[in-house]
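Below is a filled-in request sheet from our internal design queue. Each sheet records the structural input a requester submitted and the sequence that came back. We keep these sheets so that new team members can see what a complete request looks like end to end.

REQUESTER: design group, bay 2
PRIORITY: normal
MODE: inverse folding
CHAIN LENGTH: 1017
BACKBONE (tokenized):
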């Protein structure tokens, strides 16, 4: 007999090897394709992101420039009066700088109707109506608009158009444009690709096209399309078919050339109105990657085949030797095949054999061990064996043996043996009559299995069944197939209200509420198949009286018993669910009002957004604040404040619809979610809420009038994210409170530009630390003599060089709000006092006025700081004046008065700035240690044209003189105003008519050129 192992093993192994190798090759090729596809997608995504980032950065730059331009009041005035010659003279040099430094080649001013007033890049052209999409967008939204547009000569421009607003009216537009063709050269050098720009020829007017930098214009390759090709690479013809398929859409597939060495992708090119201008074709050479991949595949294949050859030779030799030895062993064992089969069928742990002819008895060594006897003392007859059988079961044993002898077979017999040491052993006996080839029955062979432990387990299970009757826990045993209850614990019977007899006529499906037989079978399938040992799940059980209670079920399947049983241990989780619900309530609901808190409210707001996005719905997010709640807490106590908030919550909820949602964020702030039919419906709902504040709320014996403010944001108009809508509703609320209104719906103008604000705060902090802020000086001239008696120190913040500045109106409020006003004021104070010391040394004896903020005026250390600075620079107190605005002193007048008295005691002069814009009176000013009064420029600039303002100026001068105060008029910009103020007796004149603010060097030169006095012509 030969097994031919080498052929039977090596051939299948070789086939498996070839199959695995082919799979590996396929996987490797697929991976390479995926890598190429990923490379292409990454390249396209990177190019697209790079393009968008460039456009965004350039747009931001143009917006900053337009902001700078319209911040100049002269620009606004000239544009308002259509004075194009003045605009040209004012901004011609600035446009030259823009064009040279920033490649800005379009700079225009337009009237409110879109007519060209001035094109600085083509100053001879004006008067025609501009129809550009960017301008139309700016006119529609009355805000800055930006976007890409295609010139009729094929040049791409990025344009920014910003309305110029004066007194709430659009007086014109400023437009800046920049060619963006150099972006594509940057893409080529940055990403190592070939790039072609395909422009729709129907969008072009002139036959002579302006090529992009580094690009060549090609016509005729693609119908109705002009191609700009970069790097002097001819546009590949094989891409024409692919382009006809993509049709301007982004192509995300890998497209190979005839050599399979290039990747190809298309990006759409659109203008500001979303109109398709053409496509950008990106081609990347991947020849090196493909060559490396191919060489790697060949090398790996060669090494794998070589290794397999060596392994095959080794296996061939080993299997040959093993085959020869196996054949010899099989031949030696073949003669014992029949006896071996019988032994394998009967043998388990031990056995014995009875010879029916000689009546002799033989047993195995393992059987002797079972009886705890020496093999030499083994029984030799059947009667000697019966001695070891338990007396109560000897008769059964004999009958079983006789049955086997008579019937040539028998079932298993469970009985006990008593060992030589008197130990009872449970065994399972299987006996059979063995016949020879000629059908003569000569022996009885038996197999004996020790089942003492298993029998003990069964008895233990029986005891467990009886114990169930006395258990207070819910424990069930039920049939594995019929599901009929077999045993039920006393605790289960007591909880369910059934008797044991009633339960044995039921199944778990009768007490598990709403569970069908099919659902139960699907649930326990894995348990029945032995895939898991235990299942734990929650359900609901029904008592006999119909009441329900939640339970946790631990289910096991006992397949080792006949029949198989399920065992279920049940735990009533009513208390646990109550605790969980209470915990959830504390986590998701406000403890004070019982309304949803911030976490739950944001979750519901997210759900509203998803649902409204599907249904195209509209809803409002309202932030409602009870004003003066802190005042109520401080005056009446927190108990009264809490009770007031609870009653407000009740009143708000009672005034809402069933579909509305209201939550409490703490303090006096509530958030409401209100579905709307359209956006205009929000106003009646807000008015309804405001009516709630018209009726006082009684808290104990106290009747409290409440005042509420409401801010609203609308979905989807104001955002599609929970945090954004909440933030914008709060912005509207804060804006309403700042404007002394009781309601406000969010508008773009409410937005505080928080990103720019945060960046400015960080930059301002660094600028103060590095002393990058500078002080400019504006003279104050005696109106009668023209002598320059004083200068006002004004802080300025240059960016880099002095060609760009951050306006004081932007960074001074930030300093006030963030506390940076303290180091800022100290910086200005030190620079101004130091400069005053220098002027005194060179013979310029003038007074320097330094501005203080509201925070400075309330700073108890201010007096010491000023004293130390003046002492360090040896400047007399008479040369320093401190200017404080009228509104500052009205915030905390008593505290402000104390600080001013300290400054006055040091000999410093005190001047009231911006008089007329606050709420004080000249009678109140008599109490202050001031020597000077500055009339706000808003009255000075209009006094010649407005009789009321002229009366205010005249009356202020007369009353101030009666109180012994000098009067300064700021904002004087022309000779007529100078003359009028001089005739009214105004002491000092300050304004652009005299001089603009200038740095110390320029002011000193101006002062010396004028001989220390200003005489108007």
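RETURNED SEQUENCE:
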């Amino acid at each position: 007999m030969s097994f031919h192992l080498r052929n039977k093993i090596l051939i299948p192994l070789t086939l498996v090897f070839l199959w695995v190798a082919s799979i590996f090759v396929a996987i490797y090729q697929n991976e390479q394709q995926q890598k190429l596809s990923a490379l292409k997608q990454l390249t396209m995504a990177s190019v697209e992101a790079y393009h968008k980032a460039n456009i965004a950065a350039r747009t931001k730059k143009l917006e900053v420039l337009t902001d700078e331009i319209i911040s100049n009041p002269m620009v606004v005035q000239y544009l308002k009066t259509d004075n194009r010659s003045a605009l040209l003279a004012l901004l011609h040099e600035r446009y030259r700088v823009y064009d040279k430094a920033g490649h800005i080649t379009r700079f225009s001013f337009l009237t409110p109707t879109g007519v060209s007033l001035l094109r600085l890049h083509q100053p001879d052209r004006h008067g025609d109506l501009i129809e550009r999409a960017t301008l139309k967008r700016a006119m529609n939204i009355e805000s800055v608009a930006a976007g890409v547009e295609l010139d009729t000569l094929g040049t791409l421009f990025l344009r920014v158009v910003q309305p110029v607003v004066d007194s709430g009216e659009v007086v014109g537009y400023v437009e800046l444009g920049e060619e963006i063709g150099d972006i594509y050269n940057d893409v080529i050098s940055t990403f190592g690709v070939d790039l072609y720009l395909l422009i729709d020829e129907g969008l072009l007017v002139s036959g002579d096209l302006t090529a992009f930098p580094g690009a060549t214009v090609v016509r005729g390759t693609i119908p109705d399309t002009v191609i700009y090709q970069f790097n002097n690479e001819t546009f590949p013809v094989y891409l024409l078919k692919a382009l006809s398929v993509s049709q301007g859409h982004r192509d995300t597939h890998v497209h190979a050339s005839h050599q399979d060495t290039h990747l190809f992708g298309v990006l759409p090119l659109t203008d500001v109105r979303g109109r398709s201008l053409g496509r950008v074709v990106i081609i990347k050479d991947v020849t090196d990657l493909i060559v490396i991949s191919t060489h790697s595949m060949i090398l790996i294949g060669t090494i794998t085949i070589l290794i397999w050859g060596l392994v095959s030779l080794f296996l061939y030799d080993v299997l040959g030797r093993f085959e020869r030895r196996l054949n010899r062993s099989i031949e030696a064992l073949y003669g014992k095949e029949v006896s071996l089969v019988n032994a394998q069928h009967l043998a388990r742990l031990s056995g014995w054999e009875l010879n029916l002819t000689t009546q002799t008895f033989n047993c195995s060594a393992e059987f002797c061990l079972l009886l705890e006897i020496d093999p030499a003392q083994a029984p030799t007859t059947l009667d000697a064996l019966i001695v070891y059988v338990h007396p109560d079961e000897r008769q059964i044993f004999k009958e079983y043996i006789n049955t086997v002898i008579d019937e040539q077979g028998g079932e298993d017999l469970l009985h006990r043996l008593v060992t030589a040491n008197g130990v009872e052993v449970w065994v399972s006996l299987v006996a059979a009559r063995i016949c020879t080839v000629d059908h003569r029955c000569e022996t009885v062979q038996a197999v004996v299995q020790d089942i003492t432990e298993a029998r003990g387990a069964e008895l233990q299970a029986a005891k467990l069944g009886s114990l169930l009757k006395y258990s207070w826990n819910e424990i069930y045993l039920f049939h594995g197939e019929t599901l009929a209850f077999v045993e039920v614990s006393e605790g289960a019977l007591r909880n369910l209200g059934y008797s044991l007899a009633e339960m044995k006529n039921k199944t778990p499906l009768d007490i598990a509420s709403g569970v069908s037989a099919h659902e139960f079978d699907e649930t326990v399938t894995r348990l029945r198949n032995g895939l898991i040992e235990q299942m734990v799940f929650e359900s609901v059980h029904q008592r006999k009286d119909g009441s329900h209670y939640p339970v946790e079920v631990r289910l096991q399947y006992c397949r080792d018993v006949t029949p198989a049983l399920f065992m279920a241990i049940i735990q009533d989780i009513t208390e646990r669910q109550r605790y969980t619900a209470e915990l959830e309530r504390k986590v998701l609901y406000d403890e004070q009002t019982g309304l949803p808190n911030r976490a739950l409210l944001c979750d519901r707001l997210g759900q509203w957004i998803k649902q409204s996005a599907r249904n195209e719905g509209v809803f409002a997010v309202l932030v409602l604040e009870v004003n003066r709640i802190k005042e109520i807490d401080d005056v009446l106590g927190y108990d009264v404040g809490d009770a007031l908030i609870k009653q407000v919550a009740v009143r708000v909820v009672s005034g809402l619809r069933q579909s509305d949602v209201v939550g409490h964020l703490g303090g006096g702030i509530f958030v409401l979610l209100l579905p709307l039919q359209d956006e205009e419906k929000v106003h009646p709902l807000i008015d309804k809420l405001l009516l709630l504040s018209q009726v006082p709320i009684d808290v104990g014996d106290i009747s409290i009038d409440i005042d509420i403010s409401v801010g609203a944001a609308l979905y989807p108009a104001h955002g599609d994210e929970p945090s954004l809508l909440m933030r914008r509703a709060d912005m509207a609320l804060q804006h309403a409170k700042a404007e002394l209104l009781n309601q406000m719906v969010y508008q773009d103008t409410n937005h505080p530009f928080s990103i720019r604000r945060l960046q400015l705060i960080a930059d301002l902090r660094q600028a103060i630390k590095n002393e990058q802020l500078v002080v400019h000086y504006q003279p104050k001239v005696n109106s009668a003599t023209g002598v320059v008696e004083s200068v006002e120190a004004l802080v300025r913040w240059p960016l880099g060089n002095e060609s760009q500045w951050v306006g004081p109106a932007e960074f001074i409020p930030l300093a006030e709000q963030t506390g940076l006003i303290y180091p800022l004021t100290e910086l200005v104070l030190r620079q101004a006092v130091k400069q005053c010391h220098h002027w005194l040394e060179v013979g310029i004896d003038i007074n320097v006025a330094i501005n203080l903020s509201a925070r400075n005026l309330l700073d108890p250390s201010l007096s010491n700081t000023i004293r130390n600075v003046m002492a360090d620079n040896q400047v007399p107190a008479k040369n320093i004046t401190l200017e404080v605005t009228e509104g500052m002193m009205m915030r905390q007048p008593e505290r402000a008065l104390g600080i001013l008295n300290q400054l006055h005691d040091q000999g410093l002069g005190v001047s009231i700035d911006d008089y007329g814009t606050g709420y004080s009176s000249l009678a109140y000013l008599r109490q202050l240690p001031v020597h000077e009064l500055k009339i706000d420029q808003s009255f000075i600039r209009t006094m010649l044209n407005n009789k009321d303002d002229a009366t205010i100026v005249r009356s202020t001068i007369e009353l101030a003189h009666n109180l012994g105060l000098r009067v300064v008029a700021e904002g004087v910009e022309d000779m007529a105003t100078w003359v009028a103020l001089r005739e009214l007796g105004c002491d000092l004149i300050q304004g652009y008519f005299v001089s603009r603010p200038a740095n110390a060097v320029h002011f000193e030169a101006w002062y010396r050129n004028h001989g220390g006095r200003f005489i108007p012509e």
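SHEET NOTES:
- The first helix runs from residue 5 to 70.
- The chain has 34 helices and 37 strands.
FILED BY: M.R.
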